[in-house]
């Protein structure tokens, strides 16, 4: 799916550069040559080159032209994420304040909350559509809507997902109050207290909280920077333990931004099929890809209904729109019963709002520019972190989503580090909150949900440079 005119040439160049087909330092075709070859305007070609420069693939040398950048090859550390062994009880008591809310948060450079900030929410569009809904639907918005949600909304969601190869039937969907409710329903429908489930490690605090509330035991499956979810580790765990479900975020995992390959997704599914383990798939970030096309979800490969996929519009539109969906596969009956017990119907106004946004294509139009903006912010934040933090830190380049996973040297005084961050009004999410284990003491998550300003870069510079003084 091409979204910008310039992608006709940037996608080819990007592929050639990444595959090594054009060597580092090679001079690239001039703006005029590209213009003529692809019948583009000069400004489209320049925008395309700006995009490649922003991605760090190309360098612009004034009065000489565009060249394949020399410093783009990243060294990604091997096995930096250690393997975690045994099942742990779900004892989780970490501070919510560290991950999302905080009074006076507006005074901070909040690199810690994974949802669109006020300025990136398409407020005018949403408020206009809401007014239309109220005018058109009037008092009917005050009634109960169907338990599993408006049929028209479910149809709009399935039509959209079919475009990226995920064929679902509107009758199989349940509309929920956001993604976390969908996760709660999915997990509760296939497990009981004390059961053992598998989750990715690291794993976002909010998912761990749901697991904790359901009194489940977990085995944390390592995620590797290069290959993502460790499928072989999962296979061995399943051979030896009665795993009742596995919870994964295969597309732009929070906090690492890692995208699982289709091969890994299929392999995970085949292991789950052998042991009949339901896969609970969080696809909340799937639409937030940087470049290329929308990745597939595991549900697209599932023929037996073992995959329960869910998503919401909290990350792509606005977190205040409390509306998500769950496709529970063959576990529909139990999930419908649970949904009823958690609240009979999702607020009608949000359902009608989403119908309007999906019907008019405004949602996809918004996403196209939103993705570009997020990618720009990701690159700016990554550049600043890599530039200013101590040399033996590592910051993983995300392939989409909202966050960068960072790893600091193990001789760093983390208390002093977080204290200094606070003094500079910088909020990162401590690595500790991403596991039931103590594995991530020296990690943190940096979120690029907000515009990166010269002021925030300056604060990052101060923090990065000061960090060197906290090394023992
Ligand atoms: C991975 C992940 N899933 C789900 C959620 C919550 O989504 P929702 O606001 O739709 O409940 C979050 C954010 O808090 C998240 O990071």
UniProtKB/TrEMBL annotation:
<dbReference type="InterPro" id="IPR015422">
    <property type="entry name" value="PyrdxlP-dep_Trfase_small"/>
</dbReference>
<keyword id="KW-0238">DNA-binding</keyword>
<dbReference type="InterPro" id="IPR015424">
    <property type="entry name" value="PyrdxlP-dep_Trfase"/>
</dbReference>
<dbReference type="GO" id="GO:0030170">
    <property type="term" value="F:pyridoxal phosphate binding"/>
</dbReference>
<keyword id="KW-0804">Transcription</keyword>
<feature type="domain" description="HTH gntR-type">
    <location>
        <begin position="3"/>
        <end position="71"/>
    </location>
</feature>
<dbReference type="InterPro" id="IPR015421">
    <property type="entry name" value="PyrdxlP-dep_Trfase_major"/>
</dbReference>
<protein>
    <submittedName>
        <fullName>GntR family transcriptional regulator</fullName>
    </submittedName>
</protein>
<dbReference type="Pfam" id="PF00392">
    <property type="entry name" value="GntR"/>
</dbReference>
<dbReference type="InterPro" id="IPR051446">
    <property type="entry name" value="HTH_trans_reg/aminotransferase"/>
</dbReference>
<dbReference type="InterPro" id="IPR036390">
    <property type="entry name" value="WH_DNA-bd_sf"/>
</dbReference>
<dbReference type="InterPro" id="IPR036388">
    <property type="entry name" value="WH-like_DNA-bd_sf"/>
</dbReference>
<keyword id="KW-0805">Transcription regulation</keyword>
<dbReference type="Pfam" id="PF00155">
    <property type="entry name" value="Aminotran_1_2"/>
</dbReference>
<dbReference type="GO" id="GO:0003677">
    <property type="term" value="F:DNA binding"/>
</dbReference>
<dbReference type="GO" id="GO:0003700">
    <property type="term" value="F:DNA-binding transcription factor activity"/>
</dbReference>
<keyword id="KW-0663">Pyridoxal phosphate</keyword>
<comment type="similarity">
    <text>In the C-terminal section; belongs to the class-I pyridoxal-phosphate-dependent aminotransferase family.</text>
</comment>
<dbReference type="InterPro" id="IPR004839">
    <property type="entry name" value="Aminotransferase_I/II_large"/>
</dbReference>
<dbReference type="InterPro" id="IPR000524">
    <property type="entry name" value="Tscrpt_reg_HTH_GntR"/>
</dbReference>
């Amino acid at each position: 799916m091409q979204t910008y005119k310039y992608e006709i040439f940037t996608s080819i160049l990007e592929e050639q550069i990444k595959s090594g087909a054009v060597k580092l330092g090679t001079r690239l075709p001039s703006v005029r040559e590209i213009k003529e070859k692809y019948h583009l305007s000069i400004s489209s070609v320049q925008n395309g080159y700006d995009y490649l420069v922003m991605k760090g693939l190309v360098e612009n040398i004034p009065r000489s032209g565009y060249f394949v950048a020399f410093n783009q090859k990243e060294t990604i550390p091997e096995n930096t994420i250690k393997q975690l062994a045994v099942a742990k009880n779900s004892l989780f008591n970490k501070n919510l304040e560290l991950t999302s809310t905080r009074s006076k948060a507006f005074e901070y450079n909040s690199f810690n909350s994974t949802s669109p900030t006020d300025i990136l929410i398409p407020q005018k569009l949403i408020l206009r559509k809401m007014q239309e809904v109220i005018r058109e639907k009037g008092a009917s918005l005050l009634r109960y809507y169907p338990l599993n949600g408006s049929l028209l909304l479910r149809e709009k969601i399935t039509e959209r997902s079919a475009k990226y190869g995920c064929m679902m039937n509107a009758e199989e969907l349940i509309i929920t109050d956001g993604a976390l409710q969908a996760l709660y329903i999915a997990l509760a429908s296939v497990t009981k207290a004390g059961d053992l489930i598998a989750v990715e490690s690291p794993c976002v605090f909010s998912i761990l909280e749901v697991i904790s509330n359901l009194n489940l035991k977990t085995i944390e499956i390592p995620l590797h920077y290069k290959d993502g979810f460790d499928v072989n580790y999962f296979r061995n765990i399943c051979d030896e333990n009665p795993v009742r479900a596995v919870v994964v975020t295969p597309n732009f995992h929070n906090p690492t931004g890692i995208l699982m390959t289709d091969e890994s997704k299929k392999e995970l599914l085949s292991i789950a099929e052998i042991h009949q383990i339901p896969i609970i798939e969080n696809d909340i970030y799937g639409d937030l890809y940087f470049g290329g096309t929308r990745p597939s979800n595991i549900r697209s490969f599932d023929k037996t209904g073992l995959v329960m996929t869910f998503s919401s519009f909290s990350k792509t539109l606005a977190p205040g729109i409390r509306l998500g969906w769950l496709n529970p596969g063959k576990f529909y009956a139990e999930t419908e019963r649970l949904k009823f017990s958690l609240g009979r119907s999702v607020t009608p106004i949000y359902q009608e709002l989403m119908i309007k946004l999906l019907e008019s294509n405004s949602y996809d139009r918004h996403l196209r520019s939103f993705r570009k903006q997020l990618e720009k912010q990701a690159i700016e934040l990554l550049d600043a972190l890599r530039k200013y933090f101590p040399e033996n830190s590592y910051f993983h380049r995300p392939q989409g989503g909202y966050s960068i996973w960072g790893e600091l040297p193990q001789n760093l005084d983390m208390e002093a580090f977080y204290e200094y961050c606070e003094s500079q009004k910088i909020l990162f999410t401590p690595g500790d909150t991403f596991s039931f284990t103590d594995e991530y003491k020296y990690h943190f998550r940096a979120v690029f949900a907000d515009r990166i300003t010269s002021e925030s870069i300056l604060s990052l510079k101060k923090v990065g440079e000061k960090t060197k003084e906290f090394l023992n």
